[in-house]
Task: structure prediction
Amino acid sequence: MSAPSSEANLRLVAPRAEPVPVVFDSPHSGKAYPADFGSIAPMAVLRRSEDAFVDELYSAAPDHGAPLIAAEFPRIYIDPNRDLVDLDPAMLDGPWAEPVVPSRKTELGVGLIWRLMPPDAQIYDRLLSVAEVQRRIDTCWRPYHAAVAGAIDDAHGRFGEVWHINCHSMPAMGNSGTEDGPVARAEFVLGDRDGTTCDPAFTAFVADQLRDLGYQVKLNEPYKGVELVRRYSDPAKGRHSLQVEINRKLYMDEERIERNGGFSTLKANMDRLIAAICAYARDRA
Ligand SMILES: [Zn+2]
Result:
């Protein structure tokens, strides 16, 4: 069922029910810190970057006919939700042969290879070798993208349309190192890059489901969606991608990285949301 592919640093859990054209991916819940990471930051600081337990919150997806892909590597080692060009060459010990186009994320220290844990914790006291960054790309970023692209293409080929849910969680508060600053965040933030990565009716459908479950929902603020929804979406061709950010206060103690008393309620509601999304896709494909 689960096809653990440890050499590929990811898990791909195949559908356990009649397939539907929905793909869930959790790029930031990995916590297998590689031995060659070479970070100076304490583990407690590094782990604040994880979207902890998000893979578990979506673990019912295969029971509703959708594959679930989850990274095992931590996003602070290499971030699969960034483009390969979103890199700061000043972090490297030699010339980078590929193009670089650093975005605002790299400026904030959280590009493809994170420099900082926001707001200001340094991750390295050294330059990274070109070879080690290339290795992170080849062993983590590429296999993850191949799995997501493969599952989306597969569903699109079979059904003619596909709905991709890119699954994340966010700290309850921003800080001086985040784009939104030190403000409290909504319970859920849906990102469709301002209506460009999926049919707006689908975004509205998911927002309505969450509001019916009692949650406060914002659209594209402060998170619009980044590389995974950008790269694989093409709504005009029936490829819909939506980023879902869950506020961590709903399910975890952010300091201790432990489930809190809200976890089981949220998990039950996520099961309902997954069922509703899968039914939506089944009805339309
Ligand atoms: Zn995330």
